[in-house]
Design a protein that fits this description.
The protein is an alpha/beta fold. It has one domain: Glycosidases (TIM Barrel). It contains nine helices and 15 strands.
Amino acid sequence: MRRITSVVVFLVTIVACTALGGSVQERKSFWAFTGPWDPLSDASLRANASRLDVAVTGWIALDSLTGEPLLPSAYADTMRLAAGTVRRFALVTSWHGQGFHTASIRALGSDPVRRARVAGRIARHAQSMRYTGLVLDFETLKAGDVNAQLVLLRAIVDSAKAHGVTTIAVAVPAEPDEAYPTRDLMGVADFVLVMLYDQHWSGSDAGPISAPDWMTRNLARVVAEVGASRVIAGLPLYGYHWVKGKPGVGVSYATAMRTAERDGMTLSRDSTSRTLRGATSNGTSVIWLTDAALLEELMRRAEQLGVTHFAFWRLGQEDPAVWSRLSR
């Protein structure tokens, strides 16, 4: 009887909160990617694993022509954390060498025998490494690649889940792109991870990486398409440094601070994008940087849309103050 009474009280509380315009807030979930080539990334994960739900520590690249998984990985995953803490996932990516290779996705989409073999190899590797999830990252596809992408995703998902992998997320660009129809992708994967960064990038003019208004507009579109509960807001932890006449270079918070001091810059918050910005007096060197305050604003905007899953690219680059601001 006591248990029944408790349930009734809990339900009445929910109804009362709703009637008063409140809501029962869902617990937030924090995912983070490591750069397995960067010792600072592993150090950050070891120090902060207790604050995360998922760490994407594995790296499974597909061969640029055949699409076969390059195993063993060029980036060995030696990360071992205390049992019962963060879950370990692997990234499956068409990035190989110096860029993303669409030819590998097309090849697998058109060859069911090879596709099944590749999916099986990925699944068995995930099982052997005790990964409980995969993030699939096939960027720079064209609209004509949708069918190839979907059949490949289906093969990987089916094989992975048959081998005990419980969660599959697929990464999509922030801006609308016909090559990534989110409703169709959600017919296959568990989550869509929206990469809400590189509003300005290495090859663009200098500018913010993820301004709140830009992020909100793009995230709201995806939430409207598939629902907030299946959306992961991918947010940046880094910045860019542009030198006149050269492509921008990605920089960590620590590197940006050292560069600003060296070049005599003062980093201050841009009033429009809420991003830290600094430039030399002659304008030949410019930094735009994500810090803890901006990340907090981006997360607040996402929560207003109902999103409670967040993924950070990438560990080792962050403002140390980020960790004191993550609250579930």
